[in-house]
Amino acid sequence: MTPHGQPGGRGEQPFHPVGGALSAGGDQHLHARRGRPRSRSPWEPAEDPENWPHADLSGHVAAVVQAIAAALQQVMAERELSFHRLAELSGVNRQTVNDVAVGRCRPDVATIAQLEAGLSVRLWPVQPGGSGGS
Questions:
Q1: To which H or E segment does residue 15 belong?
Q2: DSSP string for 99-127
Q3: Runs of H (alpha helix) within 1-134
Q4: Fewer CB within 10 A of the terminal residue: the chain, N end or C end?
């Protein structure tokens, strides 16, 4: 490190806790992630995770995420929507749409609201573990 705290040695790059190592040019833009990163996927507590979004999560809080994923998959199938097209309609990143549908993340409220607005349908379950998609 230089006296000013700048990288000065070979291969040394500044580290940012959100985005990881920055490029040596220092002009990289950082974008904060929405929501809190999770160490476990919502499908992990299931007895049969290979059946996501229909895996058994009875009584588990992840059942809400499961119901949202099931409703999202159902609406996408009925309307023959791709992840790319839903991303365009909702303003949600295509990879995030995919992650929600397959249970790789626990979507935050803003993401759910954007998906619901883009689809003009309710994804949030009427009761925990119940179905949405009205």
A1: strand 15-16
A2: HHHHTSS---HHHHHHHHHHHTS--S-SS
A3: 62-78, 83-90, 94-102, 109-119
A4: C
Domains in the chain and their CATH numbers?
49-119 (1.10.260)
Answer whether 2's CB lies under 8 Å from 8's CB: yes
Q: What is the pLDDT, as a whole number, of residue 96?
A: 96
pLDDT band of residue 47 (cuts 50, 70, 90) is confident
Give the model confidence (pLDDT) of 81-105 as tens digits: 999 999 999 999 999 999 999 988 8
Output phi, psi for 20, to 5 deg.
85, -150
What is the value of pTM for the model shown? 0.59
Q: 23 burial class (0-12, 13-18, 19+ CB within 10 angstroms)?
A: exposed
Q: Which amino acid is at 108?
A: D
